[in-house]
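=== RUN LOG ===
request id: a7f3
mode: sequence -> structure
chains: 1
length: 420
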Amino acid sequence: MIFTSPMPFGAAVQRLESKTPIAADLSSAEWSQMQLGILDRSFFSSRVNDIRTVAEMQSRISDALTLVRRDGGAFMDRSRFIADMRSYLGAASGDSGEITDLTSAGRLGLIYDFNVEDAMEYGRWMARQDPDILDAFPCNELVRIEHREVPRGYRRGAKGRLVEVPDESWPSRWAAAGGQFVGGRMIAAKDDPIWTKISRFGRPWPPFDFNSGMGLADISRKEAEQLGVIDPDAPAPKPQHLDFNHNLQSSIPDATPEVLSQLEKVFGDQIQADRDGKVVWQGQRLARLYSAALADSSVKWSLNLGEATPEAIAAASDLGVDLEGASLVIEADEIRHAENRHGAGNESRSDQRPLTSLDFQLVPHVWRNPDSVELGDKDGTLVFSKSLLGEAAIVTYDRQGKSGKWGFLTMYVKTKGGTL
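=== RESULT ===
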């Protein structure tokens, strides 16, 4: 994949950054059973329940999309992502070649390919929602854009020959979803629901399945009319991004006690209820607060991130501080304060890097599972630190009177070699 600008598809970068890193010991099949609304807002890898590893992957893929390395290193392409992640994971010499092995080049390559393709294709899809483009190219065709040794719909038979498995092929999938064939070609209007129906992930852009080599080709109005896909002078398809977001929101389950209880058994307090009574990732709530706080200085929202864990209580107790029953509250003003001191363009120390939205999404993990807890410089403050993304996330909390609540005071990130 070749990038030609420092920020290729701002929407692609936003797409990746909209995802919350989630750690859970779920298989690929189990993840696919999650409802679209919460699945689509998560960055995960099957059978990976270490938040450090998941966040590391997301951050390095973000480096690839923006052409900017947070550590100042060389461009993060596919091969470097694989090499860096194998080093991070402490992979043994050699390569097992097993897709179930997180350190294998094959598994890491799939993670990179899927997330980069998803982000970039989303960017292309958004760009194509321009009314003039939709009028000039009102249809898509499902086509093969990448070679596969064993295409979907085939399997290896005797002596390595390809044996057809018709029910698993893309034409079969297309037909099962109600798609019409045009001279054997899979073509439909861009706003046709067929595009989400054929997708394993319920969205109208590629990839439509894991390790898929299928993509979309634009079909001009002239060709679409000649093929009879649309009537002459038919109106252009309507831009879909608003409808898609609406459908995504409506697919998020209601946060009934039963639903929350079931999800908390798997995800713990990574899952929460939002103000609309819907299930949402806790990191997603923080990402929304972060965006709103920076966009509008009058925003005064706050979030309760839950009570201190036994691990945090024990660490604070050694310092003579009682966190039993204490809960953490983060406010929009505090996010703005931290961003003004340590955000992009504001971080003055060479051994610290600017804060990002992802850093704030990881604040709950620092609160719940700190690597260390120390007394702050001011009375009534505690400094929690946790190694994340190969760096140290340092968060200072302050006691808010006798209420039992603690507030987020500030945050910064020490780079490798930085002194605490």
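=== NOTES ===
The first strand starts at residue 20 and ends at 21.
The first helix runs from residue 10 to 17.
=== END ===
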